[in-house]
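Comment thread on ticket #2218

A.B. wrote:
> Attaching the input chain for the structure job we discussed in standup.
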Amino acid sequence: MKGRIAKFFSFKGYGFIEMAESKDDIFFHTSSYPVTSTPEVGTVVEFKVVETPKGREAKEIQIIPSTPGQAAEA
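C.D. wrote:
> Ran it. Output below, let me know if you need it in another format.
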């Protein structure tokens, strides 16, 4: 799946990813985010969605580099 970071709460260690295909944002925990980066609102990412007892969650998140002069699609 592909989406864009919509919200990130650094003090809580989690955030939400918005997707064009869904009206509901997907929860993610920083443990699923690349350790080399800090999540930032607006970053385009790819991820897998898993069902958990609390609902859907993004796992195996990868950052999609943006190309200068080209808008990234989510």
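A.B. wrote:
> Thanks. Noting for the ticket: Residues 2-63 form a domain with the OB fold (Dihydrolipoamide Acetyltransferase, E2P) fold (CATH 2.40.50.140).
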